[in-house]
């Protein structure tokens, strides 16, 4: 029996949610209960099945006197319990889309819903609370507090939400295989161990959605596979929805669905025959 198990969410079958940039639908047949918006992008009509809904989102950045488009009418749904990978060349818009899903950036136009809440309409206080309660973030650079131990780093999101629970933090560190490293500082941990602390911290408030940006970018091959194996286990055992960006095609194979982006649009998608939660 495991020492700790997160609140289990029932994974649901993955449904198609993207259309190629040239207007052609991806290889999969449109499932029952889906709809196409005015751009022809497929989405699921039943909101309760989706942890994320992106509808006709545009994003531009001002460079000097010009507006440079980063996203051009992107629509996508992420099913509850899905493990989704976003790929594409630099400048394709994948990190911008990830930041908009996480409420770290706002779209120039369009609608964003996470776990039933309209992200764009939230003020800063409500948006911060949404991120604390319903999202966990894992970044390439770990972003651990250097003067805090592993255990203290994991407790930070709990404290911010007013929930001091060191035993829960200890259980999370055991879950990611760091039960014997709780009192170590980041400088005393390897890169892989620091990323495991970051994953435990992301799970601190039991969020239904985990967001990862190049999570294995600074790790060696073996450690990268170990981190991805851990995420697959969390996804399958606990129903945690995961959306992550990577440049590494080997890491994309751990996902249940891979979407390729180019020039701010969804270019293609592929369902995985190996991992299908």
Helix coverage percent of residues?
25-40%
- Tell me the strand percentage band: 25-35%
- Poorly predicted ranges: 1-46
Most strands sheet = 6 strands, mixed
Quickly give the structural class. alpha/beta
What is the mean pLDDT? 84
Notable traits:
disordered N terminus; alpha/beta; six-stranded mixed sheet; 277 residues
Q: What would a concise description of this structure say?
A:
This protein is α/β, with parallel strands linked by helices and 277 residues long. It has helices at residues 94-101, 124-134, 150-160, 166-175, 191-202, 221-238, 249-252, and strands at 34-36, 42-44, 50-63, 66-79, 83-87, 109-114, 117-118, 135-139, 209-213, 241-245, 257-262, 265-271. Residues 1-46 have low confidence and may be disordered.
Care to describe what's here?
By secondary structure, the chain is of the alpha/beta class. It is 27% helix and 27% strand. It contains seven helices and twelve strands. The protein has helices spanning 94-101, 124-134, 150-160, 166-175, 191-202, 221-238, 249-252; strands spanning 34-36, 42-44, 50-63, 66-79, 83-87, 109-114, 117-118, 135-139, 209-213, 241-245, 257-262, 265-271. The strands form three sheets. Strands 8-9-10-5-11-12 form a six-stranded mixed β-sheet. The radius of gyration is 18 Å and the shape is globular. The two termini are 22 Å apart. Residues 1-46 have low confidence and may be disordered.
């Amino acid at each position: 029996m495991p020492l700790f198990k997160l609140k289990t969410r029932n994974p649901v079958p993955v449904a198609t949610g993207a259309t190629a940039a040239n207007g052609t639908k991806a290889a999969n047949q449109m499932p029952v209960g889906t709809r196409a918006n005015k751009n022809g992008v497929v989405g699921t009509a039943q909101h309760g099945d989706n942890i994320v809904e992106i509808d006709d989102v545009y994003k531009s950045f001002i460079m000097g006197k010009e507006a440079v488009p980063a996203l051009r009418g992107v629509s996508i749904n992420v099913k509850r319990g899905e493990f989704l990978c976003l790929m594409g060349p630099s400048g394709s818009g994948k990190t911008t889309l990830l930041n908009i899903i996480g409420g770290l950036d706002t779209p120039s136009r369009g609608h964003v819903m996470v776990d039933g809440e309209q992200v764009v309409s939230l003020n800063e206080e409500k948006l911060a609370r949404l991120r604390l309660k319903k999202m966990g973030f894992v970044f390439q650079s770990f972003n651990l507090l250097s003067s805090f131990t592993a255990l203290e780093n994991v407790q930070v999101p709990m404290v911010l939400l007013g929930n001091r629970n060191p035993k829960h933090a200890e259980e999370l560190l055991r879950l990611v295989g760091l039960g014997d490293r709780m009192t170590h500082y980041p400088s005393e941990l390897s890169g892989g161990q620091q990323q495991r602390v970051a994953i435990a911290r992301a799970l601190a408030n039991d969020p239904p959605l985990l967001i990862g940006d190049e999570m294995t970018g600074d790790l060696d091959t073996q450690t990268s596979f170990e981190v991805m194996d851990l995420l697959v286990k969390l996804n399958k055992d606990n129903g945690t929805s995961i959306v992550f960006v990577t440049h590494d095609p080997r890491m994309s194979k751990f996902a249940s669905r891979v979407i390729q982006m180019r020039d701010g649009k969804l270019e293609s998608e592929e369902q995985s025959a190996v991992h299908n939660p």
